[in-house]
Amino acid sequence: MNVLLATGTILLIVVLALFVAVMGAHGYFMLRNRVPYVVLPDGATMTVAEKLGVRDGDVVYDLGCGDGRVIAALRSGNSKARYIGVENNWVVWGLAVRRLRGKARLIRGEISKANLQEATRVFAYLGPKMMAELEPRFELELPRGARVVSVQFPLPNRKPDKEMELAGSASHAARLYIYNY
User: How many C-beta atoms lie closer than 10 Å to residue 50's C-beta?
Assistant: First the structure.
């Protein structure tokens, strides 16, 4: 009986070590240290969709799209726009693929490597460091007339065109910043 228990314990340790190795190889732990996976509260989604103002023909980027729920909500309001989500966590990216079922282009990779030149609308719910990294790229890459909507974290050096409280949201997603380019 002790041999069976010892064998089971060793097997469990090996399986857990393999799991940690696979998750590390796919960037899961790097993502956790950079921008955590936090879901936009349901109460905020409708306001975000309204303030993004998605029009027919727009190209909408969701940077850090997570499980795709924001893109799904935006598509329900306007299916004539193109939607592109960028996510580096393969687990939640897989959830987005399942949720959206080919109705959006989903890029599994780093936000820093995404080409934003075709984006007319950008949604971001990222941390202050990522917003600081994106600010010069927005200035260089976004076309005239593009709009960026950020939850909770502003661009550090650009004054928002509009700033507002998100009613019906949670404290970790209480502010909305809107930038027109």
Answer: 11
pLDDT tens readout for residues 160-175: 999 999 987 778 889 9
Q: Which residues sit opposite 176 in a β-bridge?
A: 151, 164
Phi-psi region of 16 (alpha: psi -120 to 50; beta: other; left: phi over 0): alpha
Domain boundaries, given as residue ranges, for the chain: 2-34, 42-180
Structure tokens at 156: 């550090």
Reported pTM: 0.81
Q: Which CATH architecture has domain 42-180?
A: 3-Layer(aba) Sandwich (3.40)
Contacts of 113 (CB under 8 A, 6+ apart): none
Cα angle 107-109-114, degrees, rounded to a multiple of 5: 75
